Amino acid sequence: MKLYPIESQNFKLDGGAMFGVVPKSLWQKTNPADANNMIDIAARCLLIEDGKRLILVDTGLGNKQTDKFFGYYHLWGDYQLEASLKQHGFHPDDITDVFLTHLHFDHCGGAVSKNPQSGVLRPSFKNAMYWSNADHWQWATQPNAREKASFLPENILPIQESGQLQMISPDKSQFLTHVPDINLSVFFADGHTEKQMIPIVTYQNKKIAFMADLLPTTGHIPLPYVMGYDTRPLLTLAEKEIFLNYAADQELFLFLEHDAHHQMITVTHTDKGVRLDKTYTCEEIL
Predict the structure, then answer these.
(1) What is the model's pLDDT at position 116?
(2) Entry pTM
(3) HEC profile for 146-167?
(4) How many CB atoms lie within 10 A of CB 14?
(5) Which residues of 27-49 are buried (b: 16+ CB within 10 A; e: fewer)?
């Protein structure tokens, strides 16, 4: 097995929205804001080469939205999903599986592409199965008013229409659900959005968890530091406590999708609760 970080895009989001009720005087120590109160955000995906399977976890924002849409998110840097795959010697047609932690546009936008001539929407990875779960799929395709702007039909419906969609069923009797088809274990979290999936892969005797929006950045480790985007913030707080304690106990490496400046971390128990232990580049671990 080999793992590769895939940098798809960098963008910016409002710092206040990213930290909810936490005052700027606290969160700006770890996530400094620009003059417009925007903070740096990554869309870092993970590629897992496991035998004949090539599994891509999340796909970033994609490139099919309008300039006006992307103008809200202040794209910066030179990263691009297909170019990052190519850097590691892969082509989109090589991907066998796309694991979508959830269907907000910054996690699944690259899953579907638009033909520039015809305007036809189709899955970006024509040979891949796309993995979601039934509860989240229903949540995303029949969205509530608060999340509707994050669930874009053009990112979601073409996957189902293509016949490439597969569903993962939670094992409610276990802390983690094992998915043998793609050799991942999954922690289901409902605070950010219904049935977000946090995948864990075992690599060279290390357990690596792809944190998605359960832990966006290192600055979000303290339990009250919960995003304003979360639909059930008190549930996120409880889920973070459970998972971060598990991560500290099991010495997990946490792969950060949204931290533009820290790729991977470990956490440890302290008298103030779970806190940051060490930071790593992916190259140091993978």
Answers:
(1) 86
(2) 0.97
(3) CCCCCCCHHHHHHHHHCCCEEE
(4) 15
(5) beebbebeeeebbbbbbbbbbbb
